[in-house]
Design goal:
The protein is α+β, with helices and mostly antiparallel strands. The chain has helices at residues 31-47, 60-67, 71-83, 108-115, 121-145, 148-164, 169-185, 189-192, 195-209, 220-232, 235-258; strands spanning 2-6, 15-18, 56-57, 87-90, 94-97. Helix 1 crosses helix 4 (108-115) and helix 6 runs antiparallel to helix 7 (169-185). It has a 5-stranded antiparallel sheet. The chain is elongated, with a radius of gyration of 21 Å. Helices cover 60% and strands 7% of the residues.
């Protein structure tokens, strides 16, 4: 079965996203879990470009049947997508995919959908540019404002990163905690609101880098240099160490994006 869509010029242009038996059987269960599975399926199709901006999902009944879910589960999934800026629904006009400029690209769930497949090169570049702008200066500020509890939280995260490694979920959780603790060190409430987004970006790029081979190097020493500078109150060294950390992560991600293309050069510059 297919998810039916209409573009701006052609009605009923066929299926984008083949699902011969609806959602995977493992997705069936509670209403909340089913809603999440439908949102994941549609969100991934939109973010990957299988359902393009401007296209209209033809109808609740048809698409609920195509996914083998209830109309209420489908409707709730559309509400999730609406809240993240991916679609809008209007009476009589139906549900249409919005331009990319409307999407909440820092939403952790949108990040998960993007990295569930082959992420857009420009999106990855933009994420690392954001990190390169925000995180070094956040590290600088953290070195000036950190307190004993902040430093202890960063040290604990580093200890767990080393113990579990980033090949495990426990290690990646520790990595997210490290970056969250660093933002907490700044004492800046606005910066701290970026914690979930930066943590999700770190998590999904780390998983993406390991999708075919292990990490090319151990990133814990890079984090340790950031920690040491912040703990010592050396603002310039903290900013420089974080800049290096982000650049190395970008280099690793660029290499991972080249591998599936069998040596073809990446456009991630």
């Amino acid at each position: 079965m297919t998810i039916s869509t209409q573009d701006n010029s052609t009605a009923g242009n066929g299926g984008l996203g083949e699902t011969p038996t609806g959602l995977p059987r493992s997705a069936k269960g509670s209403g909340r879990r089913l809603r999440g599975a439908v949102a994941h399926y549609l969100g991934s199709a939109i973010v990957s470009g299988r359902i393009a901006p401007g296209e209209r999902l033809t109808g609740e009944i048809e698409n609920a049947e195509a996914l083998d879910v209830s109309r209420s589960a489908y409707r709730e999934a559309i509400q999730v997508l609406t809240a993240k800026g991916l679609v809008e629904s209007r009476p009589k006009a139906g549900t249409r995919v919005l331009p990319r400029s409307h999407w909440n690209l820092l939403d952790p769930m949108v990040l998960a959908w993007a990295f569930g497949g082959e992420p857009d090169v420009n999106y990855v570049r933009d994420l690392f540019e954001l990190r390169a702008i925000v995180e070094p200066e956040a590290a600088r500020l953290a070195a000036k404002r950190r307190d004993r509890n902040d430093v202890a939280a960063m040290k604990d995260a580093l200890t767990r990163m080393r113990r579990f490694t980033l090949a495990t979920e426990q290690g990646r959780e520790a990595d997210r905690d490290f970056h969250s603790a660093l933002l907490a060190c700044t004492g800046n409430a606005v910066l701290m609101t970026l914690s979930a987004s930066i943590g999700a970006a770190v998590n999904w790029t780390t998983q993406f880098k390991q999708r075919s081979v292990g990490l090319p190097r151990d990133p814990v020493p890079d984090h340790m240099r950031v920690y040491d500078a912040i703990a010592a109150g050396d603002a310039d060294a903290a900013a420089e160490a974080m800049q290096v950390l982000v650049q190395l992560a970008l280099d690793d991600t660029r290499a991972a994006m080249q591998r599936p293309a069998e040596g073809e050069p990446s456009d991630l510059t």
